[in-house]
Amino acid sequence: MIKYIIVDDEVAAHNNIEDYANNLSNLKLVKNCYNAFEAISFLNTNAVDLIFLDINMPKLTGFDFLRTLANPPHIIVCSAYSEFAIDGYAFNITDYLLKPFSFERFLSAVNKVNPPEQKTPEIHINQNNDSKNERIFLKDSKKHYQVKLNEILYVEAFGNYVKVFLDDKTIITHQTLSHFNTVLSKNEFVQVHKSFIVAIQHINLIEGNIVHISNHKIPISKTYKLNVNQLLKG
User: Fold this and answer.
1) Which regions in the chain score pLDDT beneath 70?
2) How are beta strands 123-126 and 135-140 bridged, if at all?
3) Is 2-110 assigned to CATH 1.10.3720.10?
4) What is the pTM (predicted TM-score) of this model?
5) Assuming Cys at both sites, which of 33, 208, 212, 221 could form a disulfide with 38, CB separation 3.0 to 4.6 Å?
């Protein structure tokens, strides 16, 4: 679990980071700090793994704050000013996010942070004699979704996470695609790309190097073309 604090004088910035972070089950917010002095006081008695840090703050800037830290944790700078980026890397920061930033950019930055320990992936399957009723539990943030395997359209690697696409929603879980390969039945799912595993029953059309599932188009790579060819022969 990555324990993090936010150091920013804008409430909207806190809300945005928290909204993104709530989608990631390995992030835990431990403190909202609205100026550098609050952060210094908190860090005097608490340890964290990551700080989301604004630069342009009153009285004490983000960089001045960093100079007070003897052993800083991972720092992801979140700033509206691109001109501070070079100075930021002089402090050996983990990443520099230019406001406003997307969830994908946020996730890319967080994936550069190595958590102090990796927990066993929280994926559990309940099985019975009817394969249509096999279910998988997926953890997304603080929620555990129970999903029938036959409801999964496809899964996509997403950094240190996996997106699981269903008809009505997409679940982002802290997992690897290789683990899904061991969990999902080879008779019902096929890997067509290093980043994609698709549900065979939901394939509408295979056209060239594209798999069509509902309104989604999934690429077929040369490495996994043989999997698709064997599927067509079957």
Assistant:
1) 114-133, 141, 234
2) antiparallel
3) no
4) 0.57
5) 33
